Amino acid sequence: IGASRAMSGAGCALRPWWLPRKRSEVSAGAADRNPGDVELVEAAYELALDRSDPKRTERSIDAFIELMSDSVVFVPEGGAATPYQGRSAVRRLLADAAEQWESLRYEVDDIVDLGGGDLIACGKVVAQLDDGRRIEIPYVNRWTIEAGRAVRIESFSDRDEAQEAFDRQGTRAS
After folding, report:
1. Angle at CA 32, nearest 5°, toward 144 and 110?
2. Among 8, 47, 78, 164, which residue is least crowded by beta carbons within 10 Å?
């Protein structure tokens, strides 16, 4: 999720103004923050796809899907593509990705709990191509968690795109 195109010089490395440098810099005492939300997002990024091991890939996708609500919505980068709605649509997206890449895994740089069930995660997707080349694709994802399940995941190519989306929604993360 969130790995549709390669970018150079974008993503977490530039440290957007609205992301603290480390998770520990987020005030731990905020009443509307739920530590379980961060753990859920961390668990989601354990997703690993490996075309050479279909059973492992299937187990990984199953574990990811279990973290989603039945009505989860995944909005691809830029919001130009039609959002994937529901667990089965997200499962198909991941199965297609497993066929597209030789292998794929996530490296998380930061997960920031904005409170109220909103979190920002950023890092890079590490993918192995059929020809053996390895590529790294930065991502910024906004997660919305309700009742211990992900209800919405929005994918952005970089911090500027994410900030534009926040500004359009009248949200300024701080």
Report:
1. 55
2. 8
Rounded CA-CA distance 15/162 in Å is 13
H/E element, 165? helix 159-168
Pairs from 84-93 (Cβ < 8 Å, separation ≥ 24): 90/1, 90/65, 91/61, 91/65, 93/1
pLDDT tens for residues 73-121? 999 886 667 899 999 999 999 999 999 999 999 999 999 888 889 898 9
Here the tokens at position 126 are: 């590490």
For residue 154, what are the β-bridge partners?
A: 75, 142
Q: d(Cα 87, Cα 96) in Å, to the nearest integer?
A: 14
Structure confidence by residue, pLDDT tens digits, 124-135: 999 999 999 999
